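Let's practice the habit of predicting before peeking. Look at the sequence and jot down your guess about where helices and strands might fall. Then scroll down.
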Amino acid sequence: MIRFLMVIWLCPLIVTGQSDVSLNKPVLNGISYPVPTENPNMLFYLQRSLDLNSVIYAANYLDVKGGHRKLKSDQPVNIYWLINDKTGTTKPLSKVQKLGYGIRSEDLENEIVQLRLIAYREMAILLKPSLKDDRYHAHVVLEGKDIILTRVFINIDGGTKLKPNVTYIEIAGTESQTGKKIVHKFKP
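Done guessing? Here is the structure:
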């Protein structure tokens, strides 16, 4: 059931929506959602309107001395909750949450790793190494453009835990070719 619900909110990722040049954090009903503290391993984060917590997707690097960093092939990404409290508490995903927020990975050529969310395998997120900052970045294609993914925000207005009413999804990032900030908001 959870897998089905995740597909409901992720399916529209391939649909063309509105783009904007601002990369402001979401504000809903006067509540400003926090931007997680910059973590050099963070690839992107996901937030929902249900609470102020974030799901963090962070690169899991091998310990490489001298030379550029590489991802662990058996687990290239660490996924965890960042709880919005004053201490920055983190918690692992539960087994049920892994069905919704978990990933499958596949090594491709040129040190690129393809991620697919378990709940929506049709959407590819490519982890590509950057020579500029010796990090991996998460890339998605929106409206035919390569976007370095920063944030996914899901607005839920009612419904139930098993069948939420998702009113819109917002994806934010930076266009890789131009450096232009992009916010892609669409109705599922």
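How did you do? Residues 36 and 54 are 8 Å apart (CA to CA).
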